[in-house]
Design a protein that fits this description.
- The chain has 523 residues and is of the alpha/beta class.
- 30% of the residues lie in helices and 25% in strands.
- It contains 14 helices and 27 strands.
- The N and C termini lie far apart (48 Å).
Amino acid sequence: MVQGTVNTLPWEGIMANAALYFVDRHVHEGRGDKVAFREYPNGRALSYGMLAATSDKIAGAFGQVGIAREERAAMLVLDCIEFPQIFWGAIKAGVVPVPLNTLLAAPVYDVILRDSRATILFISEALYAMVKPVLADNPYLRQIVVIGDAPAGATSLEAFTTGAKPSAAVEASDDETAFWLYSSGSTGLPKGVHHIHSSMQATADTYGAHVLKIKEDDVVYSAAKFFFAYGLGNEMSFPMSVGATAVLFSGRPTPDVVVNILNTQSPTVFCGVPTLYAAILAYMDANGVAKAPLHRCISAGEALPEDVGQRWAQMIGVDILDGVGSTEMLHIFLSNADGDVIYGTSGTAVPGYEMRLVDDAGNDVPSGEVGELVVNGASAASGYWNQREKTRATFAGVWTHTGDKYEQRSDGRYVYCGRTDDMFKVSGIWVSPFEVESALIAHPAILEAAVVAARDPEGLEKPKAFVVLNEGVNDDGLAEMLKEHVKDKIGKWKYPRWIECVDELPKTATGKIQRFKLRGPDA
C-alpha cells in the first residue's frame, strides 16, 4: 500500500469499499483541487474533489431510481470525465459497473447485455444509434442513461442525478465483487470476469508501485481505453492510487493523434500496445520525433517485438517496459523493469506475483522447455459469470492459467512463445508464431506480421505468414527475400512457406491479433 495514506484514514477497519481509497482519500489528504482527469482536445477537467462529490450524487441516484445493490450497470461509455464518475458512483452504491468495449457490433452487445442481465445502461450519445436496435427487446434493462442529449425512451445523465441525495460508500468486503470486465475475445466470444474490491489496489501496490513507479506529479496517457483491463489500470488504478493526473482521449489513437497528444499534453508516462508503437515509429520516421517529458513507457496486450523496442529506445530515449497481463489478473504480473530491460523477453515476475510453467497435466516443466504460464497473485479474478467449467479450468486453486506458452531462460527471464492455441509443430519441434513474426518485423519492409499453421500438400503443418507492408514498399520478389531473412535470423526450418500481403490484420479492439481468423477451415 502507498505509505502514509490508508493507515491515516478515519474509517480504517470500518469499510473496505475501493472508492474510499481511490476517490475519497484524496479529499481527506488535501488533494481535492488536484486534477484527476483531463480530456483531450477540449480540456475539460475533473478534480479529485469534484469526483468525490459527483460519485456520491450518482450513488444516490441509483437508489432514487430503484437500482439495488449487486445489480449490474453496463457502461458503454467513451473515455471522458463522466466515465470515472459513473464507475465510482456505482461502486459506492454497491452496484456493479460493467465497462464494455466501445468498438463492438450491435449483436455482440445484445449477447453481453443479456448475459450480464444489466438493469441499467450508461451510454455515450455517439454510440446510442448503433446499439439502439437491440435495446427494445432486452428483458432486463429498466433504465437507459445517455451521456449527452437523451432520445425518447432514455434519460440524460444530468436528469438521472437531478434531485438525488449524495450517498456515502456502502460497507463492502475485500472479497466482494466490485466490477466486471468482459474478456477481449481474441479466441472467441467475451466472458464476464468478476473483480473484487481489493483487486485494483493489489495491482497498484505491485506493478504500479514497483514497476511503473507512479508518482503524484505524473501525467499519464494511455492509448488503451478504460474498458480494457490494461487501460483501466493505466488510466485509473495507478494514477488514482497516488493522486496523479490522467489524459483522456475518446477517439481512435492513430499515430498522428498520439504524437500530437505527446507534444501538447506533456505526459510523463505513456502506455501503448506493440502494434501502435510500431505504427508511431513509422509515423515519426516521416514526420519527426514526438517531444514529451516521458520517463516511463510501457507495453502489454501482445509481446513486444525486439526490433520495435530497440528502435523506440533509440528514437525517444526511453525504454519500453514490455509486460504481460490479462483480464483475469486485471493488469501486468510479468514485466521488464526500469534498468533491467532485455528486449525479446517478457522480463521477470512483478513483485507480489509467483510464476510457474506447466505441462498439460499441470506438472512443472524442466528448465529450458516450453510450458503454459500460470500465475499466483492477489489481483486474480474470482471467476467467470455463468461459466463454471471455464472457471474451474482457468482458476485452479491459487493459480490462474494464462493460456500463454513460455520458456524460462537460465537467467530467470521469460520468453514468450505464443498462445496455447497458436503453437504448432514442424518436423516434431514446437514453433512459436511470435518468434517468426518478430523475425519478419525486423525486416525494414514489414510493419506487422501474423503467423499461423497451414497444411502443405502432404497434410503436414508449416508456418504461413500474413504481413502488412510499410508505406511505399513494393512486394515484387519480397516473399523470397523474407523467407531467406527468416532463415538467417532464427533457423532454416522455421521460415514461412507461404507469405501473403494484406492491408491489415484482424485484431480485437485492444490490439490483440486474432490469429484464429487467419487459419484455414481445415486448421
